[in-house]
Amino acid sequence: MNEWARVRAFGAVSLMLLLVPRPADSQVTRPGDAIDPSSDYSDDYLATFSIIALDRATGQLGMGVQSKAFGAGNRAMTAKGGVAIIAHQASANPMYGPMSIDLIERGYSPEEALDQLVRGDEGRDRRQNAIIDIDGRTAAWTGEGTNAWAGHRCGVDYCAQGNILAGAQVVDAMVASFESSSGPLAERLMDALDAAQAAGGDARGMQSGAILVVAPRVRGAFHDRVVDIRVDDHRTPLMELRRILDLQRSGEMLRDLNAMIEAGDLDGALGRARAAVAKSPENDNAHVALASVLLRSGDRDAAMISLRTAVELNPGRRTTLPRDRNFAELHNDADFLRLVG
């Protein structure tokens, strides 16, 4: 990018930041009585810890976050598959997200993009931001006005950051977990959040959490989301977040089940369905799928047990099962008829 293009881009960035409504932390109730930007009742302040990362093997970019603030996942992250993912927290300015994406797509590095945004932002001292792009390049900023403990660490293919934390060990725990883990990116982010919480987490407690993972392409979809889950308000948001992630993974295990059955691989289908049930025992879809495979394998009694479990989990199954052709041979069965009422 030539120097004139950089000047124009910087001017546009500065103007956009100035046009964004000033956050609550810059307002006053009366002369000389400024609102504390880190107050619990400030809607803009995201006391939180998070980690952003790249999985080079899949091209996925992801972020995990937990906060003693309502709905942190709705306003702490911005991502575009194949481009970058951005964390914007502390006195959060969500415009850092789309503006960073725009600058990176124009040819700026994450460090150059973040520098442009910070220099044009009057509220920079209260911000905490981090960027990682599809090439693994990173940039992070923790303003001097963010509440202690606050800081960040960036390494190979990740950045971990937080503010109002129990101490530096919270960020260190995320780093240690991510650097020593393997497997799907969402699960690695989840493990890093758990490690951070075990190290003390947000000094004020827990309320919300989220995991977002994007990819350049998603099979059969018109979006870039691979995992997009959040818990807006919960006493144990990370436990709930993992439950939801397990539920998603359970559903993913069932995607190829019909193809396996049609190919005559009943043993493989049976193993896949049982794995889906084990991953999320509360997933009634998995129990119905397992019942279907069991019935095809000639185990009518076991199939009925799975169907009873599905109905206990979701009484609405009493309406759908009589219409399900996978169970046509049971539609006149006395036990089946009692089950569906």
What do you see in this structure?
The protein folds into 2 domains: 3-21 and 43-232, Glutamine Phosphoribosylpyrophosphate, subunit 1, domain 1, CATH 3.60.20; 257-340, Tetratricopeptide repeat domain (Serine Threonine Protein Phosphatase 5, Tetratricopeptide repeat), CATH 1.25.40. Helices cover 41% and strands 19% of the residues. The protein has helices at 3-19, 96-105, 110-119, 168-180, 185-198, 237-253, 257-262, 266-279, 284-296, 300-313, 317-320, 334-340, and strands at 45-46, 48-55, 60-67, 77-80, 84-91, 127-133, 138-142, 151-155, 158-162, 208-214, 225-231. Strand 8 and strand 9 (158-162) form a beta hairpin. Helix 10 (300-313) runs parallel beside helix 12 (334-340).
In short:
By secondary structure, this protein is α+β, with helices and mostly antiparallel strands. It is 41% helix and 19% strand.
What key phrases describe this protein's structure?
341 residues; alpha+beta; Glutamine Phosphoribosylpyrophosphate, subunit 1, domain 1; Serine Threonine Protein Phosphatase 5, Tetratricopeptide repeat; six-stranded antiparallel β-sheet; five-stranded antiparallel β-sheet; 41% helix
